[in-house]
Amino acid sequence: MRSEWASPIVPVMKANGQARICGDYKVTLNPTLKPDRYPLPKTEDLFVKIAHGEKFTKLDCKQAYFQIPLAEESRNLTVINTHKGLYQVNRVPFGITPASAIFQRVIEELVGNLPYTGAFQDDIVVTGKNDQHHLRNLDIVLPKTQGKRPSLREKKNAASCRTPSST
User: What's one Pfam family the UniProt record gives for this protein (predicted)?
Assistant: First the structure.
């Protein structure tokens, strides 16, 4: 592969102790990008959306950014340079300036307008006034995520808690 762009790699440690290999775009691609001005939600606005809930379920999106395809014309810009050669990134990579805004837009298009539901980056919190209301709200949210991108990570979802978790 040949490319006019090739960013070095940087290992990032994940919470589970594994390393994630990312492109280090801070000196290559990021200085040339215009920031995406899509706003991240304010914490207090999210709390208002879920304030009247008694039960909470936190849903975690699986490999959030990597589920969003990168536009074909942008793929040659996100090439990473490894000891095994150049690799083109085909999904939104961690480390590019607009990644957070891109993902927030996608997640809000999916569930952002639903009552008793708050979404911040790769986490979705669903709540309800009681068990029945909570389950009804989950019945609305879950089908919106099934078979769609981003999909949910089953192992990290916390179901029916009395208080929302920050992990």
Answer: RVT_1
